[in-house]
Amino acid sequence: MSEPGVRKIDAYALGARPLRYFDFCMAGFVAILLLSNLIGAAKLSTVGGFTFGAGILFFPLGYVLGDVLTEVYGYARARRCVWAGFGAMLFMALMSWVVVKLPPAEGWPDQKAYEAVFGSTWRIVFASVAAFWAGEFANSFVLAKMKLLTQGKHLWMRTIGSTVVGQGVDSLLFYPLAFYGDWTNAQVVTVMITNWLMKVTWEAVLTPVTYMVVGGLKRAEGLDVFDEGTNFTPFRASLS
């Protein structure tokens, strides 16, 4: 049930109407996505006996924001954000490759360190892009469908349930595509499962924050968007 002052609206009726905070949410989503892939994707860490990719520190925030985008603005606008992130990741990968390949100035001693940090292989780039694309769309689709099935109730169930699916798809694609053959099979499976569990746990822990952000944005926009009649194909960027 919608809060007082918040009007339930079907996504198709919303159309291309401008919304107050959508652009800010998109910018935050893309920024978190780029940082998580640039800084933490390829580093393994072990803390308290648990081995995980360092991107776990803030990558789940991207999924939380993806949940917020779908819940507040609907699947079509979340889909546009996914495509914006997809394009930004490809551009980042291209420019990282160009910058790493530029010949270093004579006497500059840090080329090898720069290559180690920013010289991701084509496998990691491909794995990141493929996993992000499939995982985010799975996450958004499940959340939007669950919102219809629950008639907008039980937000916690929708956010956690969609993350279980979305992060599962992401992890199943990323780690085997990126590291199979370079890591041992045991490492791939261990990190894949551990990261999935930690990301879902993060989502559960951040549920109060998700409720606060979703509620605040819905009140600010005055709308609660439901995806009745939405075309759920991922292969478009239109707002319908």
UniProtKB/TrEMBL annotation:
Q: How does it sit in the membrane?
A: Multi-pass membrane protein
TM regions (residue ranges): 21-41, 47-69, 81-100, 120-144
Localisation per UniProt entry:
Cell inner membrane
Matching Pfam families, A to Z? Vut_1
The record ties this protein, via InterPro entries, to: YhhQ
Keyword annotations from UniProtKB, A to Z:
Cell inner membrane, Cell membrane, Membrane, Transmembrane, Transmembrane helix, Transport
Give the GO molecular function terms: transmembrane transporter activity
Q: Which PANTHER family match?
A: QUEUOSINE PRECURSOR TRANSPORTER-RELATED (PTHR34300:SF2)
Biological function: Involved in the import of queuosine (Q) precursors, required for Q precursor salvage.
Similarity remark: Belongs to the vitamin uptake transporter (VUT/ECF) (TC 2.A.88) family. Q precursor transporter subfamily.
Q: State the protein's name.
A: Probable queuosine precursor transporter
Question: Which organism is this entry from?
Answer: Sphingobium chungbukense
Q: Upper lineage ranks?
A: Bacteria, Pseudomonadati, Pseudomonadota, Alphaproteobacteria, Sphingomonadales
